[in-house]
Amino acid sequence: MASSVVSLSLTTPLKANSFSKYNLTRLPSLRRISCCSTREFTLKSRLALPATCKQRRSVELLTRCGVSSNDFPAEKEKKRSFGEWVEFLGEAVSTAFPVWVSLGCLLGLVKPSAFNWVTPDLTIIGLTITMLGMGMTLTLDDLRGALKMPKELFAGFVLQYSVMPLSAFLVSKLLNLPSHYAAGLILVGCCPGGTASNIVTYIARGNVALSVLMTAASTLSAVIMTPLLTAKLAKQYVAVDALGLVKSTLQVVLLPVLAGAFMNQYFQRVVKFVTPLMAPIAVGTVAILCGTAIGQNASAILASGKQVVMACVLLHLSGFLFGYLFSRLLRIDVASSRTVSIEVGMQNSVLGLVLAAEHFGNPLTAVPCAVSSVCHSIIGSVLAGVWRRSAPKQLED
User: Fold this and answer.
1) Which is deepest, 128, 205, 233, 376, by most CB within 10 Å?
2) Which CA distances in Å does 183 have to 222, 320, 372?
3) Alpha-carbon dihedral of residues 352, 355, 360, 361, nearest 10 degrees?
4) 12: left (phi over 0), alpha (psi -120 to 50) or beta
5) Any bridge partners for residue 61, and if so which?
6) DSSP string across 2-52
7) Structure confidence at residue 237 (pLDDT)
8) Does 12 have pLDDT greater than 50?
């Protein structure tokens, strides 16, 4: 007797072991659950199962008896574990990096007293923990590999002490800044790369090992380069505490990163547990530091008007832009070019603040340094948010 059939496609994937419930030997029992027990139950391809049923993800049943997908055991949805939730939330916080930095800056400007609790010691502790977390994403082999990238290291060093000082000088002339603001802008342009550049590189999924070594190289050489370039361009000689720079570089940058890489090499269980928390800690640290810098100089920033803000924005935009373009012209890979861009575009503005207070008579000289710390953090955080969504292929691999 010929029978008309209705095609039913099951959307629920079937595992090989779950299909045994409906194998050929038990087809008669399936008839009992239908309203048409006297009609034949047919399976596509003449009731023949494929040999590779483990690889099959769906089965097409043909029947008039109305067998639905509800008759088949559905695969339970997997629930996120606690660790996966922490990782998911950490990624969400990191992606919104520009938002947190902007909120920190706004709070510092509107209510400077909100950051009175941030002491220099707490700042060092926060930066040290952040750098330790970045080190946990590396291995000792990564650091050794970064040392084998002389072209990238040299390009970063040259661009750091050429693009930024010259950009500061040209921007101050272009905007016709008063002498005290011009001197402050040139001073910050002659400073080395800051620790925040390592954090932004980490969030942007750049080459963190290269960023750390570039920061160390530019900081140690700042003992000579910063006074020399400032004297030439700003006509003002500044003395740099060589011992203090070496100490801070070791304490905040090199030693925590080495310790984190060591832990990643030999204590992987601990690292796996704490790593999802490191990116949110880094984001929070930068947001708090920016808010603190704004809070400490809120009145001067409000009084300086748009001119200083525009000057600092142009300075750091040129650093990010030319750092990336020149790196690509030198045929440096994308990940390293992003790292060089961030390293060149972000300065050690805190060092600029200290030097301006110690060596320049006019207190307004420090204003561009304070505004600079906010501008490069906001621009860098926006870049980090964009680049984090489009990681270079070599890093994804």
Assistant:
1) 376
2) 17, 21, 13
3) 110
4) beta
5) 8, 43
6) ----EEEE--S---HHHHGGG-GGGHHHHHHTSS-TTS--EETTTTPPPTT
7) 63
8) no
Q: Give the DSSP per-residue string, 59-102.
A: -EEEESS---GGGSPPPPPPPPPHHHHHHHHHHHHHHTHHHHHH
Q: Determine the Cα–Cα distance for residues 302 and 102; give it in Å rounded to an integer.
A: 16
Provide CB contacts within 8 A for 352, sequence distance 6+.
184, 187, 188, 191, 366, 368, 369, 372
Backbone phi, psi, residue 6, to 5°: -115, 135
Residue with tokens 């194998």: 23
- Among the listed ranges 133-147, 210-224, 337-351, which one has the minimum average pLDDT value? 133-147
Which among 32, 26, 201, 33 has a CA at the least distance from the CA of 130?
A: 201
Mean pLDDT of the chain: 75
Give 120-165 pLDDT, tens digit per residue. 788 888 878 877 887 887 787 877 888 888 888 999 999 999 999 9
What DSSP designation does 54 have? G
Cβ(319)–Cβ(142) under 8 Å?
no
Q: CA-to-CA distance for 186 and 92, rounded, in angstroms?
A: 37
Q: Which of 63-67, 172-176, 357-361, 372-376 has the highest mean pLDDT?
A: 172-176
Using alpha carbons, list the distances in angstroms from residue 111 to 103, 106, 126, 367, 375: 12, 8, 22, 18, 19
**Residue 136 DSSP SS3:** coil
Looking at residue 194, the DSSP 8-state letter turns out to be -
Instruction: Identify any residues that bridge with 60 across adjacent strands, giving them in sequence order.
Output: 9
pLDDT at 358 over 60: yes
Instruction: List C-alpha distances in Å: 243 to 164, 222, 249.
Output: 24, 12, 10
Q: Which helix (H) or strand (E) holds 184?
A: helix 179-189
What CA–CA distance (Å, rounded) separates 140 from 393?
22
23: tokens are: 């194998």
